[in-house]
Amino acid sequence: MTDTNLSTNDKGPVGKNIVSPAVIDFVTKDDMAVRQAILTDSTLRMEQMMLDRQANGNIQSWDVTVTDEQQEIYINFPARSLFVVNDGSNDIYVWINHNILPSHTVKSSETFQMDFEGHVLKRIYLECGSGNTSSVRVSASG
């Protein structure tokens, strides 16, 4: 069956927009390259997320006497887990990374534990009630 709307000359069909095979090849390859770049970027981000979720074996520990003056503890490496053991006789208050958010209360003889999906723990803030002190063990692991 032939298209009656086409006329021909010595260079091919006339009257229709014809895309050359070179242009089609270029567009196809460009589209494939863009899709490959998106996949590569996504794969790299997924790999980084998986690596960030793995423990790297770093552990840092402190024995601290917490007072009614807020103390800041810097962690030498971004950590994934935090343990705070209140060995004292008074409640303590714990803030993680920022001391402006509501605190976590750790009662006497209790343990506070926080686990993160990635290595995001950088600072810990500790404080006891007014005029009180408490002995605390803190451990951060990466």
Essential attributes:
142 residues, alpha+beta, Jelly Rolls, 2 domains, four-stranded antiparallel sheet, 1 helix
Could you characterize the architecture of this molecule?
The chain is rod-shaped, with a radius of gyration of 32 Å. The mean pLDDT is 82. The strands form three sheets. Strands 3-10-5-8 form a four-stranded antiparallel β-sheet, with no helix packed on it. Strands 4-9-6-7 form a four-stranded antiparallel β-sheet, with no helix packed on it. Strands 1-2 form a two-stranded antiparallel ribbon. The protein is α+β, with helices and mostly antiparallel strands and 142 residues long. The chain folds into two domains: 47 residues; 83 residues, Jelly Rolls. It contains one helix and ten strands. The longest helix has 33 residues.
Give a brief rundown of this model.
This protein is of the alpha+beta class and 142 residues long. The chain is 23% helix and 41% strand. It has 2 domains: 7-53; 59-141, Sandwich (Jelly Rolls).
Q: Please compute the radius of gyration using only Cα atoms.
A: 32 Å
**Strand segment tally:** 10
- CATH fold type of the largest domain: Jelly Rolls
State the helicity in percent bands.
10-25%
Please give the alpha-carbon distance between the first and last residues.
72 Å
CATH architectural designation of the largest domain: Sandwich
Q: In DSSP terms, counting alpha (H) and pi (I) runs of 4 or more, how many helices?
A: 1
> Which sheet architecture does the biggest sheet show?
4 strands, antiparallel
Low-pLDDT parts are none
Order of helices and strands: EEHEEEEEEEE
